[in-house]
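Students often ask why we bother predicting the structure of a whole assembly rather than each chain alone. The short answer is interfaces. A chain on its own may look different once its partners are present, and contacts between molecules only exist in the joint model. In this exercise we take two input lines together and write out one structure for the complete complex. Read the inputs first and try to guess which parts will touch.
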Amino acid sequence: MSEQSATLGREDVAHVASLARLALTDEELDRFTVQLARVIDHARDVAALDVAEVEPTSHPVPMRNVLRPDVVGECLGRHEVLAAAPECEDGRFKVPRVIGEAP
Amino acid sequence: MSAREIARAVRAGERSARGVVEESLAAIAERDGEVHAFLLVTGDEARSAADAIDAAVADGRDPGPLAGVPVALKDNLCTKGIPTTCASRILEGWRPPYDATVVTRLRRAGAVVVGKTNLDEFAMGSSTENSCAGPTRHPADPSRVPGGSSGGSAAAVAAGFVPLALGSDTGGSVRQPAALCGTVGVKPTYGAVSRYGLVAFASSLDQIGPLAASVEDAALLLEVIAGHDPLDSTSIAQAAPEVTASLDVGVAGLRVGVCDELVEGTAPDVVARVQQAADALVDAGAHVTRVSVPEMRYGLSAYYLIAPAEASSNLARYDGVRYGLRVPASDVAAMNVATRTAGFGPEVKRRIMLGTYALSAGYYDAYYAKAQRVRTLLIEAFSRAYEQVDVLLGATAPTTAFPIGERVDDPMAMYMSDVCTIPSNLAGHPAISVPFGTGDDGLPVGVQVLAPALEEARMFQAAAAIERAAPAPGSGTK
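Now the answer. The structure tokens for the assembled complex follow.
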């Protein structure tokens, strides 16, 4: 493996952290960059393979459109579901403001 | 006492389920302070379930094939009204509104759930150190890890707290801790056991499997939990495999391939045990050859792209809205970030970021798409190997149990613990780890039997023969 590592640098980690809605401290950013780069470096053996002609496998058991009869069955009640929510109101999940204030 | 013996005695009215459960709870109370296999012991629920079984026996009703058998559940299996944490702060205090299908089937079979066991957070890890509740310790040496991620379940069986436990195996999380603790661990064929109510980690790889003190008990548990479930769309539309019937068949004429890739790179004392198990199979009448499945060498890389990719998607649901932790903030996006940042531990964050990277624009084709194609190559390579042999044999883990703290700051070293178990998950095939003596350090070694999809019967056939030939615990390598 080459010394000047990775395809993966500090700014890549900062970018994926923001995509994944995670906040990292500077110290975490340093540490995760080293650790993730090592994993991605290891994955170069796979990245280097010429497998363009091979079909991808997304799932070990080939299946499609598993359907059940279209009849009403048992399901969880609204109360049971909302009981687990951090906050709810009037039978709905309650969240903080989604849309910003008008400028 | 084995699960089979307990169930027989309880069904015959010779022992009370309550008495069996009290023994289990007493053993946990006495030693789990040190081992820390359990996150939660459900003593009251267990006592009333046991009483109900005893009442059924008294009424002349049959409580089922696992009557009165205490069982421990990995804490990523949903239990109605009973906290299910995945050893994560983000699910602290969450009580699922339903039981996992495996839990329903266990109860229906008369088993008694005594508690929820420790794991690496969201089943991500190989040592049970990545738990928000602190590590589980190896029952035979508290300075070492029990393996992971189902380390609590493996330790609970190895410590004699329960004869049976369930774990989940995404890249070896049942088999590797089973090997390190000296218990039997099974990863069934993908789709053989319903995943309904298993908190998702990597959905195309996850499979629930038994841990037990013997091959027979593991087979008994598998027959109870397996079989089609309409609540899991990936469940195979077949009845549970009949595996207990194959335990006494023997291995005369069975073609066994010792797999190069499952012994190379493993510790010499582990390799010696695999060889000894192969020799024992020859003595029992099997035809043993050496086989190579070179594509297994890409397994680790492919797995650490595919599993994190699926995890990054599955764990997007922990957003502080519908269940679990919420860290308040002024708007939704800030609340999501604050909640996820506070709720997930470092390994989960690593995997989410790794998966997000592998799926992100510009890298998807180079990493994730390639890994999926490598998965196809591996499945084809397995098929070629299974034209020559009926089962494959190798190590379960490259080493015996390692010291707590040794690999925790080096994710790549930790990931290497799964190198022998990952190929079966990528292919969707069944595999079993059977204890076979100890390493030079006196700690247990597991040997692994792999079989093609839905061929659990022949896998158990070989496993039972290996168990019969296993050296007594504590005897040295010869």
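Check your guess against this: DSSP finds four helices and two strands in chain A.
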